[in-house]
Amino acid sequence: MAKVARDGRDTNPWPGTSFWVGLVGVLLVMTALELVARFELLPSRWFPPVTVVLGAVADLLPTGDLWSEIGRTLWGWGVGLAVAAVLAIPLGMLVGSVEAIYRALRVVIEFLRPIPSVALLPAAVLIFGIGSSMKVFLVAFASFWPILFQAIYGVQDISPGVKETARAYGLGPVSRFMRVILPSTLPYVATGLRISSAIALILAVTSELVVGAPGLGQAIAAAHTAAQIPTMYAFIAVTGTLGWLLNTAFQAAEARALHWHPAQREKAVV
Amino acid sequence: MSGRAMLEVTSLAKSYQSRNGTTDAIADVSFRVASGEFVCVVGPSGCGKTTLLKCLAGLLSPTAGEVQLNGEPVRRPPPNMAFVFQDYSNSMLPWLRVENNITFPLRHKGVSADRRAALAEETLRVVGLGEFARHYPWQLSGGMQQRVAIARALAYEPEILLMDEPFASVDAQTRSDLEDLLLDVWARYGVTTVFVTHDIDESVYLADRVFVLNDRPSTVQMEVPVELPRPRDQITTKELTEFTKLRTEVMRTIKHARRSRSDEERMGQA
Question: Which residues does chain A have within 8 Å of residue B89's beta carbon, measured at their own beta carbons?
Fold first, then answer.
């Protein structure tokens, strides 16, 4: 029997770089920051040592406050991202499939896309008030674009050979959509979701921090106002950890669902 | 020609409209294929062979003339016809395992799950890939992927099989293996086969009859009956004087067709 060829390259230039090496890097940076504060290279009053911040995190963990702030931020993040996905995926697939629509909407899209979502903050406050609908709007607006563009690229990048095979074997338009077009577009959409997830968290925290919608951003601002500096840093650390966890989760989901895609193949081979 | 005419092509013509004007791919092609017959269509590259095959398959509609399968005009891909493309990697759905690539056209045809599994198992065994059912197509070599494409075509249980230069992108050794595999399968299933190639030796080796097309816009320049004994063998068949005579005849026809066409063009310009 012929040899099985693997159509995947090893893209890691340093094979064997593992979890432990990464951990050493984290510990080195934390030690450096600790020393910066301990030796007063930065005033420790405004930049407390890492150990103090970790202590503040430990103090926050048992209280319900931390978890409800995380919940509020995640709610805005999740609902905004979901709204963006529900609008952007079908629209992107439509725009990508029909040339007339693509030409008609391209200028509008190119005009709207570069608007930094934060610049819409005052308008969003006027229209939606300072509550969670404002947060959801901003998150959704910012998350919409990467998903939209990925859906357009995805649907335009389907190999004509695959589409023709489906036609030759008598699949109708609905079957072709469900069994060929949707699965081909999915890897692109998954990448769009991962990019948007990071943007969504930024917008959620920004709206809380600047406008005062409830959530981690507001907690950071409140600790700042109350001069509880270690607590402020503790909330910042929690926000960073949350972003890292969300990104890791999205990456894992992408790799699992799309193991067949050339970009994922070397990570998960049967 | 023995048996009843299964496929009947009558005065088929196909032109493409483009910005640069009209391109005539096929001028006037008529032929009949009997049930169970193996027919090769051979001609110089770019002579409209693929266009002709796609018209037979109902993937393209002819500009004039008609294709009839079992007395019914072909307007869309018929359920009793299977197609094997030249570009094997683009005709596989990379997110489906080999077995599901074989069965995906069967579901909408109303074949039961049990029957689908049995067909996949049987056809993979026939093409010698029984142990690769759970692999993904991109884990297989080019020749193996094309065998999967043949298995998929057989599992569709077609009365007629259309093949568009299926072995043009594999190496010479794999190519002769695949030719013999195809002849085995054809003998075993008795499926009527129309095989397009630019390779003169291949056409004579495989076919009961060879149709020689001339340059664009194509007409059938010549019909060559091949009465070489079956089963055929890469060595002993190709040693026969009759084989050499036939391939020379086909080659001369193609050469002559090109020369007379360029003469005509010169006359036209004069």
Answer: 161
Residue B41 has pLDDT above 60, yes or no: yes
The number of distinct structural domains making up chain A is 1
| Nearest Cβ partner for B93 among A2, A167, A180 | A180
Q: What is the CATH number of the domain that holds A194?
A: 1.10.3720.10
pLDDT at A11 > cutoff 60: no
Chain B residues within an 8 Å CB radius of A169? 77, 82-83, 104-105, 156
B135-158 as b/e, with b when 16 or more CB fall inside 10 Å? Answer: bbbbbbbbbbbbbbbbbbbbbbbb
Query: Which residue has better confidence, A18 or B181?
Result: B181
Q: In terms of C-beta distances under 8 Å and separation of at least 24 residues, what long-range contacts does A127-133 make, across chains too?
A: A130/A211, A130/A212, A130/A213, A131/A213, A132/A72, A132/A75, A132/A76, A132/A213, A132/A214
- Per the document, the length of chain A is 270
Is residue A214 reached through a cis peptide bond, with omega within 30 degrees of 0 on the bond before it?
no
Structural element, H or E, at residue B17:
strand B5-18
- Domain of A99? 53-257
What fold is seen in the domain B5-80+158-269? Rossmann fold (3.40.50)
Q: Which of A1, A6, A168 sits opposite B77 (nearest CB)?
A: A168
Beta bridge partners of B72: B69
In a domain, A266, yes or no: no
Place of tokens 């049987």: B122
First to last CA, chain A: 19
Distance CA A89, CA A186 (A): 10
Of A159, A169, A172, the CB nearest to B156: A169
**Residue B254 CB coordination number (10 Å):** 22
* Count of CB atoms situated within 10 Å of the CB of B26: 25
Model pLDDT for residues B183-228, shown as the tens digit of each residue: 999 999 999 999 999 999 999 999 999 999 988 888 888 999 999 9
Neighbours of A182 (CB within 10 A): 15
Which residues of A fall below an 8 Å CB-CB distance to B? 1-7, 159-162, 164-172, 175, 179-180, 183, 258, 260-262, 265, 269-270
DSSP A4: P
**Taking a C-beta distance cutoff of 8 angstroms, is the pair B45, B198 a contact?**
yes
The 3-class SS string of B73-92 reads: ECCCCCCCEEEECCCCHHHC
pLDDT reading at B44 higher than 90: no
ipTM score of the complex? Answer: 0.87
